[in-house]
Amino acid sequence: MTTTVRAWRVATPVAMLIAIASLVADGVRHGDFVLWNFFGYFTIQSNIIGIVALAVALRFTGRERPTWVEWLRVSAATYMVIVVVVFWWLLYPTMSGGPSWEDLVLHLASGVILVADWLLEGPRPRLALRHLGVCMIYPAVWLAVVLVRGATDGWVPYFFLDPENGYASVGVMIVIIVGAGLGICAALTRMTSWRVVPTSHDARETVG
Fold first, then answer.
1. 198 pLDDT more than 70
2. CA separation for the pair 61, 6 (Å, rounded)
3. Cβ-based neighbours of 140, under 8 Å, separated by 6 or more
4. In this predicted model, what pLDDT tens digit does every residue of 40-81 receive, in sequence order?
5. Other CB atoms within 10 A of residue 199 CB
6. Prior bond of 125 cis (ω within 30°)
7. How many alpha carbons lie under 13 Å from residue 130 in its C-beta half-sphere?
């Protein structure tokens, strides 16, 4: 199992990078690529965080990990759950045609892998719920930047955060997003009572 985990910790980030690069190339080809807008999407940023989380976790496969690594992993998994739910629930129904292969990688496969990665090699011991706010630092900063950009240059990444809908509506969406994020992160931190991939410390305890 350890070999399988190492394999997806290599293959998944590569697939995510290829999907992101493909979208960049497509935007450049059509002449509508804007660097700050493209990398302003929560989906793109969350996938980049996921790439980093898997790359860092690769080094610690089958080993005990520092607490900061565990918070990085559970945060990345939380963000990707939000990406998957928002895309398929709110965004996909507004799109014409079926999902592209990039959509399937960045809005589905990466989320499934990051959650599975967390569940199959959870932290030891459990993370403290009193530090749950760590998971929401990045989303809070991202939302603040989106609000500033929406009020200044008028660019918003998603229709449900458009100030033209009224700040009350945007405020409700922000509360829902933050609340859902905290709930998802809390659930993931509790869903680690088993460990399919044992650490070397676990193995020593079993032998002893």
1. no
2. 7
3. 178
4. 999 999 999 999 999 999 999 888 889 999 999 999 999 999
5. 18
6. yes
7. 0
Single-letter amino acid, residue 36: W
Distances (CA, A) of 156 to 73, 145, 161, 167: 27, 10, 7, 13
Angle, vertex CA 181, rays to CA 177 and CA 183, nearest 5: 120
Provide the whole-model pTM: 0.90
Q: Is 34 left (phi over 0), alpha (psi -120 to 50) or beta?
A: beta
Alpha helices in 60-166 (DSSP H): 67-86, 101-104, 110-120, 137-152
Express each pLDDT in 90-112 by its tens digit.
999 988 888 999 999 999 999 99
Q: What is the pLDDT of residue 144?
A: 94
| Residue pair 143/174 in contact by the 8 Å Cβ criterion | yes
